[in-house]
TrEMBL record:
Cited Gene3D superfamilies: 1.10.287.130, Histidine kinase-like ATPase, C-terminal domain, PAS domain
Listed name of the protein: histidine kinase
Organism of provenance: Phytopseudomonas argentinensis
PAC domain: residues covered: 99-151
Pfam families, per database record: HATPase_c
Residues annotated as domain Histidine kinase: 171-397
Alphabetical UniProt keywords: Kinase, Transferase
Keyword Acyltransferase: no
Length: 413
């Protein structure tokens, strides 16, 4: 009997029950499907993972089964393989291993599992072939991992694109602000004369110019901060006072049909942030809530303290540190967000509104700001019931709040 060349198969004792015993114990808990067949191609043992892939557990106590390794075995391109054409038959004939062969296991119910097969012939002590061992790897998880990897890759590319847009946009916005400053100064010079001597119509038109210029200036400043081309000024902020200070503005913004409530924790901690950006984040969230309640509803602005650790928080930001946080929450009783839309709402330019009505940058800016403040953001939403957006800021004075990059606001004299 010819010796099998080394490295091309396993040499095992010529004792089938022993092989079965060793095989069984070894393979029972492997995360890959493993099964053994004897020299006639009859199934002698298999592990639970193999049965899971096959979708059935062949009864070894009955007639010997010449199992192809599936109810139906198919090649990677879908062609049916009867036993005679299967790689198992090829191994029995050639006595050579087959490595990394992609195939499809078709189950009795018609469902299919892509697998990667590795078949090794088994030899007895005298060199005769006593069967083979086939390990089958379930590729479904692999496919899911590949998909997740692609998803990450896309997200990364999107982030890099945004960074590029941010850099280019930053330069353009600088140019805008310079021009806006001179426009604004000219308007200030004209203002006196127009209010003193101008007709009513001229005054009204002037007011429109002023308002539009101020709005564009605010927008440009917001974009500049977003593009991170300016050093940030940080302040110690009482979130309750901040919200109460904005209450008139918020009530005017949402109108009469929306009932506005403030639910502020009396012991609320301070936070450390850029005031202008925090205000603009809240205005953005309020505007979204307002638009989600066209027929009216309830807007609830709340503050509270909380302790975050890794277990109780799905952190959106890799920079997450457990500790004490103060939360500003904007909740509405509006339309809610569809589950499939939830993962997109922070993407730049994502919007469900008419193109000329919005930019789709609101939540992008809010998230970018919260991340910059070493904070966290959580959204919960139920369709037709409402949405709640919570901004988590590390408490003022905590190590995590001290680590926010920016310069401290000098106390005014
Ligand atoms: N409170 C909310 N209720 C329902 N949908 C919301 C809410 N906030 C945000 N959205 C959805 O997220 C999208 C993106 O919001 P945003 O980034 O602020 O851009 P924009 O407001 O310009 O559309 C909105 O178009 C809307 O579909
Ligand atoms: Mg918005």
């Amino acid at each position: 009997m010819a010796e099998n060349p080394p490295g091309t198969g396993l040499r095992l004792p010529d004792d089938v029950p022993l092989v079965r015993k060793i095989g069984h114990e070894l393979i029972e808990f492997l995360p890959v499907g493993v099964y053994l067949c004897n020299a006639a191609g009859h199934l002698t043992t298999y592990n639970p993972k193999a049965a899971e892939i096959w979708g059935e557990a062949p009864d070894l106590g009955k007639e010997p089964i010449r199992y192809t390794g599936a109810y139906r075995l198919r090649s990677e391109n879908g062609a049916h393989m009867p036993f005679e054409q299967s790689p198992l038959a090829a191994v029995l004939l050639s006595k050579k291993p087959i490595t990394n062969l992609r195939m499809i296991v078709e189950r009795r119910d018609g469902s299919q599992v892509p697998i990667l097969a590795n078949i090794v012939p088994l030899f007895g002590m005298d060199g005769t072939m006593i069967g083979f061992m086939n390990s089958i790897q379930d590729l479904r998880q692999h496919a899911a991992q590949e998909q997740a990897q692609n998803h990450l890759q896309n997200a990364l590319m999107q982030a890099q694109k945004m960074e590029q847009i941010g850099k280019v946009g930053g330069g353009v916005v600088h140019e805008f602000t310079n021009q806006l400053t001179s426009l604004s100064m000219s308007l200030s010079l004209m203002e006196r004369e127009i209010t003193d001597n101008g007709s009513e119509q001229l005054q009204a038109r002037f007011a429109l110019c002023r308002e539009a210029t101020d709005q564009v200036t605010r927008l440009a400043e917001g974009l500049l901060l977003f593009a991170r081309t300016r050093p940030r000024v940080l302040e110690r902020i009482d979130p309750n006072q901040l919200l109460l200070g904005m209450s008139t503005l918020i009530r005017n913004d949402v109108g009469q049909k929306i009932d506005c409530q403030f639910d502020l924790a009396s012991d609320s901690n301070f936070l450390r942030a850029n005031r202008q950006l925090l205000e603009s984040a809240i205005i953005n969230l309020v505007a979204n809530a307002r638009d989600a309640m066209p027929g009216g509803g309830q807007l609830i602005l709340s503050t509270f303290n909380t302790l975050l650790d890794r277990s109780n928080f799905m952190h959106h930001n890799a920079n997450f540190k457990p500790g004490r946080y103060v939360v500003i929450r904007v909740a509405d009783t509006g339309t809610g967000i569809a589950p499939e839309a939830l993962e997109h709402i922070f993407a730049p330019f994502y919007t469900t509104r008419a193109a000329n009505k919005s930019t789709g940058l609101g939540l992008t800016m809010v998230r970018s700001f919260v991340t910059d403040m070493n904070g966290q953001l959580a959204v919960t939403s139920r369709q037709s019931q409402g949405t709640s957006v919570s901004l988590y800021f590390p408490c003022y004075g905590s190590e995590h709040s001290l680590a926010i990059t920016g310069s401290e606001q000098k106390p005014e004299r």
